[in-house]
Design brief:
87 residues; mainly alpha; 2 domains; 4 helices; 0% strand
C-alpha cells in the first residue's frame, strides 16, 4: 500500500473511532421505533393482544421482505441478508 493509501486508512480509522458503536446502534433502534410507531401503532386500534400480534407481524414481514431500504442499496433486508457474504 502506498503512502496515500496508508493516509486514507488512518483517516478512516480516526473518523470511525470518534463515534462509539453503541451510539450508531442506538440511532438504528430509535429510527426503527419511530417508524413502527408512525406506520403501524398510531394508525391501528387493537382490540386484543392476538390482533396486535397479527397486525405487527404483518407490518414486520412487509418491512423485512418487501420494503426497500436505501441503506441496503434499495433491497429489502431479507434479500440483502441472503446475499451477504461476510460474517
Amino acid at each position: 500500500m502506498g503512502l496515500a493509501g496508508e493516509a486514507m486508512d488512518r483517516a478512516r480509522k480516526q473518523v470511525t473511532s470518534r463515534v462509539p458503536k453503541a451510539d450508531l446502534d442506538q440511532r438504528d433502534v430509535e429510527s426503527f421505533n419511530s417508524r413502527i410507531r408512525d406506520e403501524c401503532l398510531n394508525i391501528n386500534s387493537f382490540w386484543s393482544l392476538a390482533q396486535a400480534r397479527v397486525v405487527i407481524s404483518d407490518w414486520k414481514h412487509d418491512y423485512n421482505h418487501h420494503r426497500r431500504h436505501s441503506s441496503l442499496c434499495y433491497q429489502p433486508p431479507a434479500r440483502c441478508a441472503a446475499t451477504c457474504t461476510h460474517q
